[in-house]
# Entry
Amino acid sequence: VVKWGRNGKFLACPRYPECKNAMPLNEEGQPVLTSEPTETAYACPKCGGVTIQKNGPFGPYIDCMNRESGACDFRAGVPIGIACPEEPETGQLVEKRTRRGTFYGCWNYPHCSYTSNTLELAKMPPARSLEERAAANQKLLERSLRGKAAFASRKAKAPTPAKAPAASRTAAAAKAPSTRTTAAAKTAATKATATKTAAKAPAKAPARKAS
# Structure
């Protein structure tokens, strides 16, 4: 089925979450074949490590090679080759797509709030002053934290399906008598009762022969 993510439309399995297979779609709505991870020329802005370009259900993205060991958590979109005007030493602009359209933002988000709706240098917003950047970044971080907290709260309150574990179901099935076993037990009880009744009944006197 076709779904919409933060990077546009993508194909997903209708049996999600049991099946998490997905594939990105291009602008014409055709599936995009994924390629093997490749090393990029960009250094990780957090730890300086090598970055790897990968493909996922939402399209291509970049991971720091040190994510596998847990030493770094950097992940971002693929840079378009233009440094962020506000953080040119470590920031790179990446393409982002929403329902409202495409825009370009710094891959240091949410620590950098710079965005632009165009790649034309003459039309791109200029770098803001340090005070303006600090105030905007602080608001962005607060909004990001509120969003994460709200998501965690919804996830915690979401009802979980009441499904007994396999071990419990097996134990319950073992304890529950089957219909055949119950019928056999009833038959045995009936026979035992009949035997006791016959044993308690007085013996009949033998019939006299006619003289």
Remarks:
- Residues 130-157 form the longest helix (28 residues).
- The chain is about 30% helix and 25% strand.
- The mean pLDDT is 78.
